[in-house]
Amino acid sequence: MLSADGGLDAALTLRAAYQVGGRTWLRAGAGIIEESEPEREFEETCEKLSTLTPYLVARQ
Question: Distance of CA 40 to CAs 24, 26, 28, 29, 33, Å?
């Protein structure tokens, strides 16, 4: 949200679980900068997703 005095209040969702059509999807965000290493960014994304998996229950 941008205030009248030019201040900005923002948020970035780094991890999310959502359901669409009876399926559950996981998403994880990553910030890519000039110094980023693609392999490490991938590892970090997997680490973020692994924090959600203990809370998922498979459908019977």
Answer: 26, 19, 14, 13, 12
